[in-house]
Structures are given as structure tokens and as C-alpha cells.
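*** Protein under study ***
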Amino acid sequence: MKRRNNRDVKETYFEGQHLSLSDLKEEEIENGYLYKNNIPAYPESVKFRVQKVSHVTGKQGLRGIFRNSGFRQPSELVASDQRHFLWWDLSVTSDDISSAEERFLTSLFPRRSAAQIQNQSPILNQFTSSKAFQKDSSYGNFRFTFSFKELLWHYGKQFCGDQSPVLRVYETVLYRREVLYKVLVHPHDINLYDHYPRLPDQEDGVCGYDGAMWWRCQAPSETYKLKLEVNKLNRSVYVSPHREEYYVWDHVCVAFHMEPGWVLHVDQNKLLKSVNACETSKPCLLRAPETPLSLNEAERVLAHLKASMR
């Protein structure tokens, strides 16, 4: 199905499903990048286990979060007739990448010797170059990062009567060069989403939750300049140069259901520890009247705010 989102961007979306790239290709969607067959070999379906999530905002959003001691829907979105969500992205660390690479190599070569393991050079960090792995953001200069488990605890305590919230498979959304998997979080007594499947906790599917978010990344780069080479004899992998090719990239975000007026409260000291400045990447998706800042400007704003709260 097709629609325009609240930023007036065209989307192809599939409700209640997390469709893999191969599943999407069977849908016969009009998308030239999805069907490219000249993409060099790369690490596919690499399983990441991610403990943290992040929320990025602009200068006014930063001040609003500290003023409210927590996170809420922007007033201009609350006024709309759309469902109200608080959005978080998976925050993939260098340790997450290293662990994912080890799982990937073990799946390729279950019986590597100690010497083969020691002699293997890291390769996955050369492919994890999409926006899913970058420190900058299209959504602003101020990134709040929390343990996903801790965030679920805060949400459950405040909105779910101390029960664990429900996690569901919400949507797959396809853009021109981006595949987005949406995970939904909501209280048990909100029945709007009963027709969406529960998010799996086992190994089945694109992503799930078992105390950490796991995600099978199928396209870790937007641009491929390297080719993955597999040496079965030596049980090792390496990379070789390749002509530049553009492709789709995939990522996961988490949508917390928020009623108008709800604020997901977090202690001010935890807010201070969780926030850092980052650069704004293109395309800039800040909502007016927010404007992007340079990294130096953002760091000064954040330093001033922290000093004012001591």
C-alpha cells in the first residue's frame, strides 16, 4: 500500500509484517534499487544484538525534554488526528558490530581453529556504513541514548500499571533507498493494536526482543565499494575493491504509543548523562522552526544547559 507520511514523503508500507528483502522483491514493487542484481557480495543477514536505543532532537526539543523532565509528542503532532508515537532508533555500538561479526563468521565456519580465529582481520566494520550505524543524524544535534530494557521499565511503570508493555510487529516501510522495520510498544489496556502480531522473542524473523533487540541486518551499506571474498580452504574472509554500487539499506526503529499529554519521565541526572551532541546529516529532517547547528554550536548549547543545571 502507498501513502504520504507527515513529512509529505511517499512510502510503500506493509502493516503487521516485517518483510525481508527477498520478501519485498516478491511483492513486485516499483523500486529500481531494490531489484539491482549487480551488488557485490557482502555480509548478509548478520544478526545484531543491540542493548541501547536513541532519540535525536533539535535545540528546542532538547530544552523541552529537560523542561518536562522527559519525552513527549511535539505539540504540533499532538494536534493532528494521527496516532501518537515517541520514536527511538537502535543504537549500534562498536562492540555490537564485533559480536555480530563473530556470530557471522561462526555461522560460515563452525569449526575454525584457534589460529584461524586469531588470524582473521575484522571486516564487518568496513560494510556497516549506512545511517543505521552512523553517529550523526538527520533529526537534529542532540542524541539521548538509553538501555532499551530500562526504557521499557520506565514506560511500564508509568503507563502500564507496573506490567511489562506489549511489543508488536508494526510495519515494514519502503522508501527509495531505505527499508524501515517498525516495532510498536504499547500498554496492555490499549486495544488499538490487537490485530498486529506480537514481536517474536525467538530466532524467527527480521527482528525481535529477548532482553535485547536482535536484528538481522540485510543491507548494512548504502554504497558498496568492496566485495566480500570467502576462502573456504582457510576458513577466512577478506575484502577486495569493487566498482561503486548503490543499494537499499535497512534499519529498525521503535515506536512507543503516547496518549496526548503523556510524558515519559526520566530523572534529570539520567537525562544529563544520556545526552550528547552530534552532527546533522543530510537530508535534514528537523521540523520548522528548528534549524541544524554545527557540531561546535551544539556542544556549546549542551555545555551551557548542563552548567545551568548544576
In short: Residues 94-108 form the longest helix (15 residues). Residues 2-134+143-264 form one domain. Helices lie at 21-25, 59-68, 75-78, 94-108, 114-119, 148-159, 268-274, 295-308. The CA atoms of residues 139 and 286 lie 5 Å apart.
